[in-house]
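Technical annex, item 7. During the second reporting period the consortium partners agreed on a shared format for inverse folding records so that results from different sites could be compared directly. Each record opens with the tokenized structure and is followed by the designed sequence. A conforming record, contributed by the partner at site C, is shown below for reference.
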């Protein structure tokens, strides 16, 4: 016997704007700490390389390379963190888990890594709309932001 989708939706609690916002802040704090360790390790390696290759007189070039490496690493860490966590059996990043939020597809099933990746990159579009893409969750029936519509996901409260 299957449940009627209408009754299932009536019982579902969707995560609203403020809960999602606080989860995002927590995630950024977690990522900040993680990035600090990675950036420090990369910085130490580059500093050591300055001496190994006797490139101390090319410090301006080295810092530009370092900045480029950090930008790529930051992009990669953030993408993998969100995509891997949201597509895992946990169904959410650490910030979302702390607030009892679960990421699901519109059928209330776990999303794939590909869906989580699409959702992550769609957040760029939500940001490019001067935040309006994020504010959509305050007004949509299932409290979906623009990137949720694109990724075909919903955020529910456990």
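Designed sequence (site C submission):
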């Amino acid at each position: 016997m299957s449940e009627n989708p209408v009754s299932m939706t009536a019982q579902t609690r969707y995560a609203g704007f403020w809960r999602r916002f606080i989860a995002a802040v927590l995630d950024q704090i977690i990522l900040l700490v993680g990035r600090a360790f990675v950036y420090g390790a990369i910085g130490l390696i580059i500093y050591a390389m300055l001496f190994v290759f006797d490139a101390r007189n090319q410090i301006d070039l080295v810092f530009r390379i370092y900045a480029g490496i950090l930008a790529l690493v930051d992009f990669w860490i953030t993408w993998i963190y969100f995509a891997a966590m949201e597509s895992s059996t946990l169904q959410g990043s650490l910030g979302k888990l702390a607030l009892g939020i679960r990421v699901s597809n519109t059928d209330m099933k776990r999303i794939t890594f590909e869906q989580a990746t699409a959702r992550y990159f769609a957040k760029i579009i939500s940001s490019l709309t001067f935040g309006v893409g994020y504010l959509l969750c305050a007004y949509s029936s299932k409290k979906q932001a623009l990137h949720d519509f694109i990724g075909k996901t919903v955020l529910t409260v456990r």
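The helical segments are 5-11, 17-52, 59-87, 94-98, 113-128, 132-135, 146-151. Strands lie at 101-105, 153-157. All partners now use this format for quarterly exchanges.
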